[in-house]
């Protein structure tokens, strides 16, 4: 038996939604999983990260597959994994969440009594450490995540039509661990209030497709002020994207990618998208950083079985 799955990239920490709001993107990794003939798991990787990602049982997809089998009370087999990646690692686009969710979803198909999609969230968060990449990778759309004691609650939204996303991926890598270490343990009440109102406004704007509030509703005081200094050109790229006509812009996940959001009433792309892309490229270039642009939109399906 061979199982093939497609899993989306994700953009976490959307604007004020640190550790709470993430979006699934139409950029996909594909994983093909089967039981290995020998006793050793084998991993083959093509595409993004092919030279840097592990090729043994420490690969995140295989760790996820083993964890799921353990949770089901089954002995995990040795696996044979082929992964074709389009999500660049350590770029702020949820590559580790894609590996985890892809591994869980594929391995689930091998269980005699598979878990529901909803039941995969908890092991996914346990491996990733935060919910705002794995939840949209599982469910698609925009997902709001909240912890209540031992349980995760999620609310999946379908944003209004026409949501266009311009991603600027600087030629830098930033590990989430490093980017979490720079965050303060305590924040002020005024910073909490700053983000609260904006998180509510951003949610409303995503649902209604109202672009006007995005500029201020995407602002953040919980993580960006501490992380932008680690990413030359990021703050300037966000400002330049808005200046060039984007509704709003933010760091994608912990960065270094910058995401710009707009609602296009007409066909995708066009001159506004080009201007936003050029503005972000030039802001990063001014900081001495090369970057590439990906224009994409929201994925509404989350991880799916192929074939
Ligand atoms: N919410 C996570 C963080 C996302 O900011 O650390 C990492 O991609």
Give a topology summary:
Blueprint: E1 2-11, E2 21-35, E3 42-47, H1 60-71, E4 79-85, H2 95-108, H3 121-128, H4 134-139, E5 142-148, E6 151-157, E7 163-170, H5 176-181, H6 189-208, H7 214-217, H8 224-227, H9 234-243, E8 248-251, E9 258-263, H10 270-286, E10 291-297, E11 304-306
Helix pairs in contact: 1-2, 2-3, 9-10
Bound molecules: L-homoserine.
CA(first)-CA(last) distance? 12 Å
Q: State the secondary-structure class.
A: alpha+beta
Task: Identify every distinct bound molecule in the structure, by name, code or SMILES.
Answer: L-homoserine
Number of individual domains:
2
Kindly report the oligomeric state of this protein: single chain
Q: Got a strand count?
A: 11
Task: List low-confidence stretches.
Answer: none
What's the total helix number? Answer: 10
Percent helix: 25-40%
Regarding CATH, which class of the largest domain? Alpha Beta
Mean pLDDT: 95
Largest sheet: 7 strands, mixed
Provide key terms for this protein.
307 residues, alpha+beta, Alpha-Beta Plaits, 7-stranded mixed β-sheet, 4-stranded antiparallel β-sheet, 10 helices, 11 strands
